[in-house]
Amino acid sequence: MQQSSISALFGALSNETRxxxxxxxxANVNTAGYKxxxxxxxxxxxxxxxxxxxxxxxxxxxxxxxxxxxxxxxPRLAEQTxxxxxxxxxxxGNTFDLAISGPGFFQVRTPDGIMLTRNGQFIRDAQGQxxxxxxxxxxxxxxxxxxxxxxxxxxxxxxxxxxxxxQQVAAIDIVTADPKSLQKLGGNFFTGQNKTAPVTAPAQxxxxxxxxxxxxxxxxxxxxxxxxxxETQRSFEAYAKILTTTQDMDNSAVTxxxxxx
Length: 261
Known about the structure:
2 domains, 4-stranded antiparallel beta sheet
């Protein structure tokens, strides 16, 4: 197989992965607290034996003793990252819609353990717990956040404390984590690498605040993602064309080998 086929294959597969991420970003443009994924490319250079050839000795020959050095480049996906940039705030007016401004996450207890999320769209269930749409309880002080059945307004303070009649009834856990140590799971949740428990620390009140009656919209830039999708599709088509052309050249060479006409 020619080097052009190998390089084109890696390029096509890399662009396919990038296209899948873009499609996922666009599919979540209405998901509260969603954080966009991105990838970066780099060329991985494969050095040839002649790259290590010393300069030719002038007293032996004025010409190169070996062919000129060549470096073969193959495109690779260098890194996939989660864009943790702040998303815009959207007013909902719902008592249990919460948005985090600044670095931080809500902690939610799932069947697979504690997970992190930026989606603050909670409801009060029949047991009085604040839960996600999947029924997973929001955590506070190591326990599910419990809201008493009361006709009085429930107030969530910027530090996460929950008040009823100016009396604290719960405290929502707001934690921070190194984005590089996190990986995404389904349902807009984050966990540690290889699905281990995330390493967290309490959020700093001067940097992170909770806003009641708001939801954080996704930080996906639709126009940017659409442009990237067009660029990726065209790049994929170009690599596919290289594969087709290389195959045609190989077929032509095989057909003509030994031909006397």
